[in-house]
Amino acid sequence: MGIARGYQRSQALAVAAELGIADLLGGGRRTVGDLATTTGTDEPSLYRLLRALASIGVFHEDDERRFSLTDMGELLRRDHPQSVDPAVRMFCADYQWRAWGELSHSVRTGGNAAVHTLGTDVWEHRRRNPQDGVVFDAAMRTMADSYADGVLAAHDFGTYDLVADIGGGTGTMLAAVLDAHPAVRGILAEQPEVLAGAPVVLDAAGVADRVTLVECDFFAEVPKGADAYVLLRVLHDWVDEDAARILRRVREAMDPSARVLIIDAVVGPPNEDPLTKFLDMMMLVSAGGRERTEAEWTALLEETGFRLESIVPAGPGRAVIDAVPAG
Q1: Closest by CA position to 140, among listed 128, 154, 122
Q2: I need a labelling partner for 100 at 20 to 30 A (CA). Which of 3, 154, 163, 240 fits?
Q3: Average pLDDT over residues 47-63
Q4: Are strands 162-166 and 228-232 parallel, antiparallel or unpaired?
């Protein structure tokens, strides 16, 4: 029953995020009446929402119907350095909700549920709906920031002069790499509308003077001359045919001594690893890609002219997959 009713918790959390409740509680506990007035909501209904979320640890309710933040709830604040607010709003956005509602279409046909229900893929949907794109980019920054320590511990980027982050969003991961290794320079290759948000991220990290911004369609061409090419949560968005196209463009840009570093999930053994396996379901219904096993990563790399060197865990649901040009 807990599994069957799981959507109720996610939607309740999404509404609290939409209303900015965690930010309102940032200064201390407040009455539900005060919160209802500030948010323009129905007080009895807001109370029912908040007490439900308090029962699972997001907020804390005292004996006088006043609410405050728990340690978990602090992460919902939009000003928290590791805020999950954009990720909550992205995962529970209407277009995602509608795609998951058509899961049976994907299972029955193998087709993409988002395309089936929205009439376009999620990338084009976000281009047509810029606010959804803003939330998505913010969620990617949050996730990249949360990955950084594990990735830096799993791989020594200090051995490179030039690191190219392909499809690297607004540069959060690249900024972490350069901040940890002051002698390293970077290339951030992305679509122009995404790159527009990169300067503020790179300036805040103090690394903007070491990064070259390159407008890029990674299906057509990627920048040449880097020592390492990073693909952070890029290839899982695409079916094998499209992922292979991206890898071939990277291979064409690489010198023989360069390497590609794929930061992605590796599907665990049977009856384990729900994190990755449900992420794989999200790829099925939303982005249209897939998570891959070690054998599937090996085959994809060999097909595109690479040899797998190592797979090093870099945190829950992610690893650094290190490969070099074959031969």
Answers
A1: 122
A2: 240
A3: 97
A4: parallel
CA distance 216 to 191: 5
Residue 180 CA to residue 125 CA, distance in Å, equals 36
Which positions are catalytic? 236
Domains defined along the chain, listed by start: 6-78 (1.10.10.10), 135-325 (3.40.50.150)
Distances in whole angstroms, Cα of residue 77 to Cα of each of 20, 28, 43, 86, 264 = 8, 13, 21, 10, 27
Confirm if 235 and 246 have CB atoms less than 8 A apart: yes
Instruction: Judge whether residue 173 has pLDDT over 90.
Output: yes
Between CA 106 and CA 98 the distance in angstroms is 13
Instruction: Sheet with 318-325: list strands edge to edge.
Output: 211-215, 185-190, 162-166, 228-232, 259-264, 318-325, 306-315
**Long-range contacts, 200-209 (Cβ 8 Å, 24+):** 200/170, 201/141, 201/170, 201/171, 201/172, 201/175, 202/171, 202/174, 202/175, 204/175, 205/175, 205/176, 205/178, 205/179, 206/179, 207/174, 207/175, 207/178, 207/179
Across the strands, what pairs with 215? 190
Amino acid at 187: I
- The encoded tokens of residue 197 equal 């948000």
- Give the span between the Cα atoms of 175 and 82, in whole angstroms: 15
Give the span between the Cα atoms of 89 and 80, in whole angstroms. Answer: 15
Does residue 25 surpass a pLDDT of 90? Answer: yes
Q: Which two tokens stand for residue 321?
A: 């997959």
CA distance 214 to 218: 11
CB contact set of 179 (below 8 Å; sequence gap of 6+): 205, 206, 207
Separation CA 207–CA 224 (nearest Å): 21
**Identity at 3, one-letter amino acid code:** I
Give the separation between CA 229 and CA 215, rounded to whole angstroms: 16
In whole angstroms, what is the distance from residue 325 CA to residue 218 CA? Answer: 18
pTM for this prediction: 0.91
pLDDT at 82 over 90: no
Range with the poorest average pLDDT among 94-103, 134-143, 148-157, 241-250: 134-143
